[in-house]
Amino acid sequence: MDWKWSLVGRITLLATVLLGLAGCYEQEPKPRITGEQHRVVLPPAQTLPRQHLIGRSVQGRPILVQIAGQGTDTALIMGTIHGDEPAGTLLVDQLAKHLQDNPQLVEGRRVVLLSTANPDGAAARTRDNAHGIDLNRNFETANRVDNGTNGLRPLTEPESQALQSLIKEYAPSRIVSIHQPLNCIDYDGPGQAIAARMAQDCDLAVKKLGAKPGSLGSYTGETLGIPTITLELPPEAAKMGDSALWQKYGKALMAAVLYPDRAP
User: Fold this and answer.
1) Partner residues linked to 193 by β-bridges
2) Long-range contacts, stretch 221-226, CB < 8 angstroms, 24+ apart
3) How many whole angstroms separate alpha carbon 103 and alpha carbon 21?
4) 7, 8, 9, 11 alpha-carbon torsion, rounded to 10°
5) Less packed terminus of the chain by CB within 10 Å, N or C?
6) Could you give the CA distance from residue 246 to residue 173 in angstroms, rounded to a whole number?
7) Enclosing H/E stretch for 10
8) How do strand 109-114 and strand 62-69 relate by DSSP bridges?
9) pLDDT per position in the chain (264 positions), as tens?
10) What are phi and psi for residue 196, nearest 5 degrees?
11) CB contact at 8 A, 252 and 100
12) CA-to-CA distance for 167 and 179, rounded, in angstroms?
């Protein structure tokens, strides 16, 4: 009887040891796969242009901006506030692609891109919006003139309202509005130094045209004191194509984005 129990005891002891060893193998820590070992290097999410709806036009078209980067220094670059000046849209879209391909350029800064400020006018190829109002004369300024073209009062139009809200929300350090066809670089407010820097990187000369009644430049440059540049492209700019436009004026835009740093 003692021999049998001794044998059973031995078998039990052996089974216990084997189970313990199996448990040891199961509980042995597995090599941990860290995020560093499998990290895919991507640009930080805040550097990539991300789209944001700021309003709708008279006819319901979306007014969209793209935001690239993050920081206290903010450049607002916009095009086609006059619908029959489409080169601005092409150039701003090229800038958005350039910043997406080179996210290091917006590290520590923010760029707000509004490619089409007047979508109804752009669709109809008219200077004014669908109400027949010149959006670049619809802002509240000391020099504004109320009439049927400028608006019977400031900010009558949803497009100019959206743009004013955008400026209040992002408080840009400088603004570039792209126009045609006067073939120069104009400025309002304290924008002369930025205009001169941009002129170094393109074939347009700096020319002070004067703040127009109720214009964006009058509002942001003269009233708010934000350096505001009007990049007046030549008449043939819209026929050049987006790549040719970027080749000719992209560096000047980047000079405004990076100011006071030099564009690479």
Assistant:
1) none
2) 221/175, 221/187, 221/188, 221/189, 221/190, 221/191, 222/141, 222/142, 222/143, 222/188, 222/189, 223/140, 223/141, 223/142, 224/167, 224/189, 225/189, 225/190, 226/167, 226/172, 226/173, 226/174, 226/175, 226/189
3) 54
4) 90
5) N
6) 23
7) helix 2-27
8) antiparallel
9) 444 445 545 545 445 444 444 444 344 344 343 444 444 444 444 555 689 999 999 999 999 999 999 999 999 999 999 999 999 999 999 999 999 999 999 999 999 999 999 999 999 999 999 999 999 999 999 999 999 999 999 999 999 999 999 999 999 999 999 999 999 999 999 999 999 999 999 999 999 999 999 999 999 999 999 999 999 999 999 899 899 999 999 999 999 999 999 877
10) -65, -40
11) no
12) 19
| 8 A C-beta contact, residue 123 and residue 85 | no
Structural domains in the chain plus CATH codes: 45-258 (3.40.630.10)
Q: Which helix (H) or strand (E) holds 132?
A: none
Q: What is the DSSP letter of 28?
A: S
- For residue 142, give both structure tokens: 């000391």
The amino acid sitting at 204 is L
